[in-house]
Amino acid sequence: MDAFLEGMRLVFDPYVLMVMVAAATYGISIGAIPGLTATMAVALLIPITFFMDPIPALGAIITTSAMAIFAGDIPGALLRIPGTPASGAYTDDAYNMTRKGDAELALGVGVVMSAVGGLIGSVVLVIAAPALAEVALNFSTYEYFWLACMGLTCAAVMASDAPLKGAVSMLLGLAITTIGVDVLAGQPRFTFGVTDMLEGIGIIPALIGVFAVSEILRICSAQRSSPPPVQIRVGNIFKDIGKVFRKYWFQFMRGNAIGIGIGALPGAGSDIGAWVAYAVSKRFSKQPEKFGKGHIEGIVEATAANNSGLAAEWIPALVFGIPGSTITAMVIGVLIMKGMQPGPTVFLNHPELIYGTFITFFVANILMLFFGFLAIKSFKHILKIPTAVLMPTILMFCIIGSFAMNNSTFGIVVMLVLGLLSYVMEENGFPTAPLILAMVLGTILEQNFLTSMIKSGGNPIDFLSRPIAGALAVITITIWLLPAFAWLRRRRIRLAKAEA
Amino acid sequence: MKINDAIFGVFFLLLAAALFVGALSMPKIHGLAYGPSLYPMVISIALVPVAIGLIVSGLSKWQSVPPIEISDWVRSPRQLIGFCAVIASVLFYILAAEYLGFWITSMLILTCLIGWLWRKIWASLGLAVVITAVLHVFFYTFLLVPLPWGVLKSISW
After folding, report:
1. pLDDT digit string, tens, across residues B23-76
2. Which residue of B has its CA nearest to A44?
3. Between A274 and B13, where is the model more confident?
């Protein structure tokens, strides 16, 4: 109890609260700028946190990431350029809702479900952290391999109208991850002697290219000279939230469960949770044909998964020192710099810091409601700027954002190439989401695949022999076979009709 | 630009072949039963059936979907230049930023792009200066991104 009170005292210190408010403004700004991600926001914040004590530093990181993850929904809904990879899962739905004049609902659901999802994730973080992390810690490379396969399969098969093109997009993404030094032997692959390619293709410039540059190209080459018909006035964003919650409360809770479950797995991260939650929502929806065309159901589930997963990512990071995502990997780096090795001993030696971190999550998610509302209200002014001014400005943001990750122009080259590739793919009906997810998961997949192959001596039975691995394999293979079943069913119906 | 799926299928088949051949040429690592070539090989093999699927799908629609269909906007010089200007701007930044510096490169890009799309030359010049200044303060001063100074090195801060 003393530790809890001490944690409260640390968090509710005026200096810490001021840092959190500043971090909220910063996170919202970065997340709302198309192409700039929550990961980038935290990465750029890290040098500043070195000058802070642990609690303000952790508070700044937690607040920034939570705000940036939510703020990614705003440009996604209003410009069809998601601010963060997690928002990419339901950008088409949010943007199409905006085009129909329902921007308030799309953004209101985004902010409220994110905040409540984040609070639920925080509760789970506080109550079940050790137990959940223990389950995840028992996972071997076989389970991680199948989990990565399942995430990719969901993106390619379930989250796309054209499973074949989704599979091509996913395999292209995996092929891109083979560029650079390989994960086990350190052997350069497909680098063609270019030093910058040794590190592989950076995910941040790739994301900016796929989601932002392709959109800029599309708008600049569009027949119309005026902006797309998006709704300029964003009214009361909290108006119909209650109605949506009553209708989709089960999807909301399921989204939280998926976000927390996947976020708590080391290496998985909340981004995958959002994609999987969206895919699950579509799969079990009574109206799957409406997904991607401006339907709120998938947004409810995926946006809840986003922020609940963000808190859950911290479970393995805090309890066992294993990062749940790139953001928590950076957090571990910050804590080590401050002389604290995350792990069970932190609970014994510095319980006030653990409680302080938990309390920070609650404060950050409550702040989100207020700052989210302000951000949405302010962001609409960007839409009043002519496209002719907005697009070149966003292009400059994209260029700087791609440059900033490694301070290298190679990032800008990657951004341009991936932007053009994404443009051609989308023009021809290839979904780009599986490409991006494959690029995020490619290294995890390869590492666990090769390690499992070495452990098993190439025996495929070992990939299925552990109960959880076997269950994940069955689920994944079933999803692979779904399009074939659907095709057979359609064929049978067609034949039956022809005979009749 | 719409391209028939069969052409995409052939492209991905060639990509699979290139990946496979590239993986075969990778050196074996002593003591490692499964080296760096295995993963690209698996991907290349997985690409084959989906590429064939695309070829079959494309050929079945060959009569209705031409091999390559040029979009309407390509025939409009204004739209075509707008599209090419975006690509040219990024290429220009990559090639010139180190020498000209962020300020000059950004102002040139923004003036040309905004000027072309908005058709208001003087307003675009003024906006280019303001936007460049805001971007520089935000990224260089606050976020410590080392944006290049180029020829303006002598007046850098």
Report:
1. 988 888 777 778 888 999 999 999 999 999 999 988 988 887 788 888 777 888
2. B143
3. B13
Q: 3-class SS at A102?
A: coil
Range of the domain at A495: 2-499
Q: What is the ipTM of this complex?
A: 0.94
Instruction: Closest CB to B83: pick one of A187, A221, A397.
Output: A221
- Among the partner-chain residues B54, B135, B145, the one whose CB lies closest to the CB of A168 is B54
Q: How many CB atoms lie within 10 A of CB A313?
A: 34
Both structure tokens of A495: 């034949």
Cα distance between residue A308 and residue A262, in whole Å: 10
Q: DSSP E strands: which ranges in B18-150?
A: 68-69
Amino acid at A397: F
Q: How far apart are CA A354 and CA A365, in angstroms?
A: 17
Residues A76-80 have a mean pLDDT of: 78
State the first-to-last Cα distance of chain A, in angstroms, to the nearest integer: 75
**With the C-alpha atoms ordered A353, A357, A360, A362, is the resulting torsion angle positive or negative?**
negative
For residue A210, the tally of other CB atoms under 10 A from its CB is 28
Name which of A428, A465, A460, A454 is nearest A172 in CA terms. Answer: A428
Q: What is the largest CA-CA distance in chain B?
A: 67
Nearest to A125 by CA among A259, A250, A247: A259
Chain B positions touching A223 (Cβ under 8 A) are: 72-73, 76, 79
Strands (E), A254-385: none
Distance from CA of B123 to the nearest CA of A (A): 10
Instruction: Decide if B31 touches A, using CB distance below 8 A.
Output: no
Q: Supply the DSSP symbol for B28.
A: P
User: A158: closest CA among A305, A254, A277?
Assistant: A277
- Rounded to 10°, the helix A269-284/A141-153 angle is 50
Question: Given a cut of 60, is residue A361 above it in pLDDT?
Answer: yes
Q: In chain A, what residues touch B94 (CB-CB under 8 Å)?
A: 409, 412-413, 416
Most confident of A135-144, A330-339, A473-482: A473-482
The phi and psi torsions of A387 (rounded to 5 degrees) equal -55, -35
User: Quick one: three-class SS letters along A437-450?
Assistant: HHHHHHHHHHHHHH
- Among A438, A367, A281, CA closest to A20: A367
Minimum mean pLDDT range among A58-62, A216-220, A258-262, A333-337 = A333-337
Asked if residue A227 has pLDDT above 50, the reply is: no
Give the DSSP letter of residue A179: S
Distance of alpha carbon A427 from alpha carbon A425, whole angstroms: 5
Put simply, the chain B residues between 43 and 102 with a CB less than 8 A from any chain A CB are: 43-44, 46-47, 50-51, 53-54, 57, 71-73, 76, 79-80, 82-83, 85-87, 89-91, 93-94, 97-98
Q: What is the DSSP letter of A227?
A: P
CB atoms within 10 A of CB A1: 6
Residue type, A382: I
Q: Among residues 114-153 of chain B, which lie with CB inside 8 Å of chain A?
A: 114, 117-119, 127, 131-132, 135, 139, 143-147
Q: Pull the structure tokens for residue B106.
A: 């950004």
Please, which residues bridge with residue B69 across strands? B2
Q: What are phi and psi of A188, to 5 degrees?
A: -65, 140
Helix (H, G, I), strand (E, B) or coil at B2: strand
Total count of domains within chain A? 1
**Selection from A355, A319, A333 nearest residue A50 by Cα:** A333
Tokens of A236: 């009361």
